[in-house]
Specification:
It is a single chain. 82% of the residues lie in helices and 0% in strands. By secondary structure, it is mostly helical. It has helices at residues 3-42, 48-80. The chain starts with a helix and ends in a 9-residue tail after the last helix.
């Protein structure tokens, strides 16, 4: 595989990982629980269970973002080709 193809694959993996991390961790685990807290609070249906689950999702969203991003970054690092920077004896 040529270096250009490897770098393109690495860029695609990094981009997909960043977008997926923002979508799952940012939207599904941060924005939506905030919306549901607001929605149930304004309609008078906010229970302790809904509040606890939503706050737990909000608290763990940064961990999920970091975890997804790092998995894709590790996968992309296999294609980046740092053999040019290694020291040779």
């Amino acid at each position: 595989m040529t270096k250009v193809v490897q770098r393109v694959i690495a860029a695609i993996l990094s981009t997909v990982g960043s977008l997926l991390a923002l979508y799952i961790g940012g939207y599904w685990m941060f924005v939506r629980p905030l919306y549901w807290i607001y929605y149930y609070f304004t309609n008078g249906g906010l229970t302790l269970h809904i509040l606890f689950i939503s706050l737990l999702k909000i608290f763990l969203s940064t961990t999920v973002i970091g975890g997804i991003w790092i998995i894709f970054d590790i996968a992309a690092s296999f294609f980046r080709g740092y053999e040019d920077y290694e020291e040779h004896d």
